[in-house]
Amino acid sequence: MAASVNNIAAAFSGSRMPGHPTPAFSASPSTPAISVFSSSTTAGGGLTISTSWNPHSTLPHSRRSYLLSAYGPPGPRPSTFRAPPHRRRATISIGCRIPCSTLSYLADGTVRTISSTELARGRKAVILGVPSAFAPSQWWPGKLTAEELVGRAGEMKLRGASVVACVSVNDVFVMRAWGESIGDEGVMMLSDPDAGMARAMGLLADFTGGAEGFGLRSENYCVVADDGRVKALFTEDNDVDFDDVIKAI
């Protein structure tokens, strides 16, 4: 680029009137220049022009203010990208199919996966969703708890439920440890990675910003499904317990 500028300058160098001084521009004493636009005559008679002129440092303050307001400061402009706002899906309702999402669990030290549709296909299933494992009861004051689910799982199976599962937005190791601590005999302790199932069912809970670090979790709910379709849906807002769930199987 410098070579091109020099060639242009050389083309106009012959038109300069003799005796006129070589133009030079510099900053005012009150505004020190970082780099100055200048020109000088080369040995061959051409005009060499410096391309390192910085108008923000050499122009008067009023002109600098205009350039800054019109074009912004020197350098790349900041990105204007913003993440789209979170849009909550409509809550799943009775008669709808269980949305397909991937759940995971730990079995014999190996991480395994199962889809939510496979979990409920061709049979009756009771699926409890909770916001977090090990959280004290004051965080979720409803009666739809994992501990109560484990205690009533036998009754649910007598009523025809082939699958009784607890789903939470925790990793598989936390879910396995939690299950062992509450004696999860007969209950599948499933991890909902990235709250995928909660989001698909319209039951995502946003706890972002809390000091506890919960972030995006699941609401507290219990769904009774028959061959993949929702037969009954209970949430903690309904003030229900597992007596209601068992009647709906």
Automatic annotation (TrEMBL):
GO cellular component: cytoplasm
Top enzyme class: oxidoreductase
Keyword check for Isomerase: no
InterPro entries for the chain: PRX5-like, Redoxin, Thioredoxin-like_sf, Thioredoxin_domain
The UniProt record lists the keyword Oxidoreductase: yes
Domain Thioredoxin: 92-249
Gene3D superfamilies per record: Glutaredoxin
Key words of the record: Antioxidant, Oxidoreductase, Peroxidase
EC number: 1.11.1.25
Reactions accelerated catalytically: [glutaredoxin]-dithiol + a hydroperoxide = [glutaredoxin]-disulfide + an alcohol + H2O
GO MF annotations, alphabetized: thioredoxin peroxidase activity
Family designation: Belongs to the peroxiredoxin family. Prx5 subfamily.
Protein name: glutaredoxin-dependent peroxiredoxin
Source organism (scientific name): Platanthera zijinensis
Lineage of the organism: Eukaryota, Viridiplantae, Streptophyta, Embryophyta, Tracheophyta
